Amino acid sequence: MPADFLKCVKNGGKVVTKQLKGGRSIKICYDKKGKSHVSEVKTKKKAKINSKTKENTKKDEKLLENSKVIMRDLIKLKEHFDNNHRTEV
Q: What is the pTM of this model?
């Protein structure tokens, strides 16, 4: 960071962020006299989807599907139990 920008921030200047084209941004500090001091241009990093994330997503989908199958089986079992084991009062 430029020294004059850091000095401005340290002395209580107002910092604003300006968005630039191409996913870039720059911070500007305005000191108490109204003079501006700029920081370095920053670029947003794109989130990387690694193979572990893809594997975890596949595992989550598989668990969800297994849960649905188990739920269907439990509903069938409950219906079977209700139909065949009714007690008359």
A: 0.50
